[in-house]
Specification:
Helix content is 73%, strand content 0%. It is built from two helices and no strands. Helix 1 packs antiparallel against helix 2 (32-51). The relative contact order is 0.16.
Length: 55
């Protein structure tokens, strides 16, 4: 399994930031708030993955 490096974390963070930006732009539509939540949960998952000890 590939290692979760800083470069990979950066790419994932940029991806979730883009999803969150699209969700903010579509905030008046049906999928806007859901996309913003996906972006927020994605950022929290990156943080949680770094905190949780690996066995």
């Amino acid at each position: 399994m590939p290692e979760f490096t800083l470069e990979l974390a950066s790419v994932v963070a940029v991806t979730f930031a883009a999803i969150m930006t699209v969700g903010f732009a579509w905030r008046e539509r049906k999928w806007g708030p859901a996309l913003m939540m996906v972006g927020i949960v994605g950022f929290l998952a990156i943080i949680a993955y770094g905190i949780v000890p690996k066995f």
